[in-house]
Design the sequence.
């Protein structure tokens, strides 16, 4: 194939509705002789390949407005009027050319059979959900980082697994399908095609031969197989549990899909109601999920979030018997879980959750209406809302009492939503003196507060707040119950209470978890069918035979919610009705589907062996590739996705499918890219600009977004350029279509090239930090790439094109050139491996600045630099490598290694002190003698005045560190000792 750049032509931009025919003719006649002008501030339009269509004025405005909202039509008009313009380098030809080369040659394919004697490196992105909106510039941040790492590891001699696929089942696709009347399969495939095209346009080195989609029956066959293994081991079961039910969406939602009592998708009201659901017994693995966190190379904040989500605690279950109307104990008892049994004498009331199973039998006739109203309100709140510490505590009296087993007191039973039916026993003993939430509740409803623990150091003396720490027990003895823990430390007192409870039958020791079993069913169409049938005569559940997998999703024209709670699959009557293959009895299929989490729990394993039709993954391949070495994704998946994946992995480990206890060795969370800063000015009722702080004076103000060019910075604030007395508000928001601040990477690539986008996203700041997009910032890295191109290829020809080949020479490099190169080698390698990509780019920029000062560019130096650049900017690097005379891709060339001998500085900046006070510095050779150092200092223009006419009493010299000259009286000659 012809790998040379196509010839470029310079042409004007046709805008016949803005220019007269005379002026257009004049411009066209002058094109041949027009001089080329260069804009150092903006990449200009005009240099295009012969294949490129001319852009109209409005095309420019449209493209620019999508990239930088502050570019006005006037600027685009000015840009359009430039008669002859050109690009910094021909990325528009280079990038498609090398993307085709990589695809045609399958450059990044990881063979099925590999040399396992070589080290492996498995680098993985959290695979995306292919929405109809496509990518925005925030998405490639993590993908670019993993690609840089993957390219480095290939060049370092590793077998690299770097795959990509699609998490394509789920609620958003189905909702979009319902809204548009398009089948979710059609929209999903269309969205996948768009995402794939966008990712390929950015030059990511994915092995596309391993591409997977959770919607592919050959993939979800094994998702269903894993479910059957869970079912066999009692880890999948059905139970009636309180769930988040969204009538509008017609499905159960997970807690994280409910925000402020409404669905995250669509903002529909959500209620709590009991439903029979499939559950996965993740709680059986709670201890292992907790303990194995210690050995993982994960951010400590992420591990702590998982620890808190699992929420292991040690305490006791205590029984409080319910009293009848005469104050006598009945056979009904409320079992509470407490982590502080040492405070039992301070329990002055009980609280049960609104969904507690005994509630109906506890409520008196008088209180029944109030309780029902309270339950209705509580059912519309998510668990997160109910347990929010800052929220005001609310509750209602049940009308019943129970007896405190420790002191025999009758205490009221209340219902409050800050207690969850899903945690512990769904009931607590309230000790307001020693629990903040209980104290707030007791203060509001005027309950007694009994202090039963005092601080050991007497530091706590505020009666207006609860003391929740441990200390010495007091007021904690009762002869009738036989329990006396007065004067004991909290830990010892708790142990004694538990022992007493077990001996008297009033309670027992208990380990508890906040972690709940995983609700594993959705009343939706677009998901993996659950491979279970139910016999019609007995309703017994029967697993589908493994040989019949995959159980495929039936085609369904009407996949809207039924409105009755029955899943949409119930409409596929011919699919639902079946027979038990073993008994021949009539049966019905399960019509709920798996949640979107299912397919994403194990996809990293399928990448190891994506075409295997006989088993989930070949054991030899799994043993070689496991675990994932680096897993990169957003912190929003820190708990649930990672926890669910770890749970499934441990089950697969127990049954011998995988060889490691954990799936992901190292997890890295990239930061968020916010949209460009928006500037908002305020206007009063007369349309005059006023500062936002003037609302009290002018009343209600109207806000108006203004372009960046109308704003200047003044101190820590931003003000109007035309009237600096008017302050404006500057704020960056997360990118979203609703805010109109989404930047499409396609537009950036079209104007600046994929390499510039990749480089800019890595240069914005530390990889893990939140950053703000600024389109003008991309111009800096684009200029860096243009300078790199001109350094190696040479300046442009008069017609704006570049000559073939390069300007490098075959001369031996100088020692300064070698030092500059090896310093760059060391820095770039270290910074990639430490995911400090921005400082790696800085090192290459420093090298380029140094290289521009050289008279000659030795081949050995330049080739090494191109290899260093290639993980970051692979397209331009490949083209430069080819122009340097190489016929193959550089993807597997050895990555340059730094020679330590060149990293040691040959010169040292030596501080010079006079009588102990630093007066300047001199530059000396490493290993310079004291006499030579003093000679240089005494001749230095700035230091000479301190020595002139003074006696040198003493010199203190620490080689490479400092020279301190102690001076005597005046009128003595300066000289060496």
Sequence:
């Amino acid at each position: 194939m012809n790998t040379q750049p196509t010839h470029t032509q310079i042409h004007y931009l046709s805008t016949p509705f803005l220019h007269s025919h005379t002026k257009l003719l004049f411009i066209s006649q002058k094109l041949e002789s027009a001089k080329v002008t260069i804009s150092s501030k903006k990449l200009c339009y005009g240099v295009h390949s012969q294949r490129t269509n001319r852009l109209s004025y409005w095309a420019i405005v449209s493209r620019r407005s999508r990239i930088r909202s502050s570019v006005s039509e006037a600027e685009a008009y000015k840009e359009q009027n430039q008669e002859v313009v050109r690009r910094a380098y021909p990325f528009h030809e280079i990038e498609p050319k090398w993307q085709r080369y990589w695809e045609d040659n399958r450059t990044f394919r990881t063979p099925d059979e590999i040399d396992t004697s070589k080290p492996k490196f498995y680098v993985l992105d959290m695979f995306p959900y292919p929405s109809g909106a496509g990518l925005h510039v925030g998405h490639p941040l993590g993908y670019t980082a993993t690609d840089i790492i993957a390219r480095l590891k290939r060049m370092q001699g590793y077998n690299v697994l770097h795959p990509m696929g699609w998490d394509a089942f789920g609620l958003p696709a189905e909702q979009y399908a319902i809204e548009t009347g398009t089948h979710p399969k059609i929209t999903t495939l269309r969205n996948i095609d768009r995402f794939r095209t966008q990712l390929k346009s950015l030059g990511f080195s994915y092995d596309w031969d391993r591409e997977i989609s959770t919607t592919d029956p050959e993939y979800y066959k094994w998702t269903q197989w894993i479910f059957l293994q869970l079912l066999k081991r009692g880890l999948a079961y059905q139970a009636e549990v309180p769930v988040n039910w969204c009538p509008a969406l017609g499905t159960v939602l997970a807690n994280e899909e409910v925000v402020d009592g409404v669905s995250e998708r669509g903002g529909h009201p959500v209620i709590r109601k009991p439903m029979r659901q499939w559950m996965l017994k993740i709680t059986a693995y709670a201890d292992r999920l907790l303990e194995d966190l210690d050995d993982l190379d994960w951010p400590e904040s992420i591990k702590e979030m998982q620890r808190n989500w699992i929420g292991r605690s040690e305490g006791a279950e205590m029984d409080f018997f319910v009293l009848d109307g005469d104050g006598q104990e009945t056979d009904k008892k409320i079992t509470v879980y407490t982590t502080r049994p040492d405070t039992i004498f301070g329990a002055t009331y009980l609280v049960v959750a609104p969904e507690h199973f005994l509630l109906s039998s506890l409520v008196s006739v008088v209180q029944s209406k109030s309780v029902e109203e309270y339950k209705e309100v509580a059912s519309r709140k998510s668990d997160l809302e109910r347990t929010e510490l800052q929220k005001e505590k609310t509750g209602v009296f049940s009308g019943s009492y129970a007896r405190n087993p420790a002191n025999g007191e009758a205490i009221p039973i209340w219902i409050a939503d800050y207690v969850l039916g899903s945690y512990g026993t769904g009931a607590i003993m309230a000790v307001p003196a020693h629990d903040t939430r209980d104290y707030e509740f007791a203060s509001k409803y005027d309950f007694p507060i009994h202090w039963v623990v005092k601080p050991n150091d007497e530091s706590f003396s505020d009666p207006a707040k609860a003391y929740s720490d441990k200390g010495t027990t007091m007021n904690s003895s009762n002869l009738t119950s036989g329990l006396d823990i007065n004067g004991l430390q909290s830990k010892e007192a708790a142990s004694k209470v538990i022992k007493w409870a077990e001996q008297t039958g009033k309670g027992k020791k208990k380990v508890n978890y906040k972690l709940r079993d995983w609700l594993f069913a959705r009343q939706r169409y677009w998901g993996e069918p659950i491979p279970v049938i139910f016999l019609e005569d007995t309703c017994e559940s029967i697993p589908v035979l493994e040989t019949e997998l995959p159980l495929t999703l039936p085609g369904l024209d009407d996949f809207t919610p039924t409105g009755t709670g029955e899943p949409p699959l119930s409409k596929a009557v011919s699919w639902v009705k079946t027979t038990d293959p073993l008994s021949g009895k009539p049966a019905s299929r399960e019509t709920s589907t798996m949640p979107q989490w299912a397919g994403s729990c194990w996809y990293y394993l399928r990448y190891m062996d994506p075409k295997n039709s006989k088993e989930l993954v070949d054991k030899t391949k799994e043993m070689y590739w496991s675990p994932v070495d680096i897993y990169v994704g957003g912190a929003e998946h820190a708990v649930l996705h990672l926890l669910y994946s770890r749970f499934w992995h441990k089950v697969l480990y127990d049954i011998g499918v995988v060889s490691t206890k954990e799936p992901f060795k190292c997890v890295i969370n990239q930061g968020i890219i916010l949209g460009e800063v928006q500037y908002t000015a305020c206007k009063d009722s007369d349309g005059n600009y006023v500062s936002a702080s003037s609302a009290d004076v002018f009343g209600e103000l109207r806000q108006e977004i203004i372009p960046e060019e109308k704003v200047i910075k003044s101190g820590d604030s931003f003000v109007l350029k035309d009237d600096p007395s008017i302050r404006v508000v500057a704020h960056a928001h997360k990118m979203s279509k609703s805010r109109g601040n989404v930047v499409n990477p396609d537009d950036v690539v079209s104007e600046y090239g994929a390499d510039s986008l990749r480089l800019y996203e890595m240069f914005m700041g530390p990889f893990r930090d939140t950053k703000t997009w600024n389109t003008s910032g991309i111009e800096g890295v684009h200029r860096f790439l243009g300078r790199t191109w001109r350094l190696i290829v040479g300046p442009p020809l008069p017609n704006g094109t570049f000559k073939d080949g390069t300007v490098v020479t075959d001369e031996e490099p100088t020692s300064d050139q070698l030092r500059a190169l090896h310093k760059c080698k060391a820095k770039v390698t270290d910074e990639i491996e430490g995911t400090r990509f921005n400082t790696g780019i800085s090192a290459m920029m420093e090298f380029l600045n140094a290289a521009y000062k050289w008279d000659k560019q030795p081949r050995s130096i330049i080739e090494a630099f191109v290899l260093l650049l290639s993980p970051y900017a692979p397209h331009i690097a490949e083209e430069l490598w080819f122009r340097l005379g190489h016929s193959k891709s550089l993807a597997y060339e050895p990555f340059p290694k730094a020679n330590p001998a060149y990293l040691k500085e040959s010169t040292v900046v030596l501080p010079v002190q006079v009588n102990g006070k630093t007066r300047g510095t001199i530059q000396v050779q490493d290993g310079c003698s004291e006499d030579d150092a003093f000679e240089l200092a005494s001749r230095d223009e700035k230091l000479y005045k301190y020595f002139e006419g003074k006696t040198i009493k003493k010199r203190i010299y620490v080689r490479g560190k400092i020279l301190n000259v102690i001076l005597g009286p005046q009128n003595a000659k300066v000289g060496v000792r």
User: Anything to note?
Assistant: The radius of gyration is 36 Å. Confidence is low (pLDDT under 50) at residues 1-66, 68-85, 971-977. DSSP finds 30 helices and 41 strands in the chain.
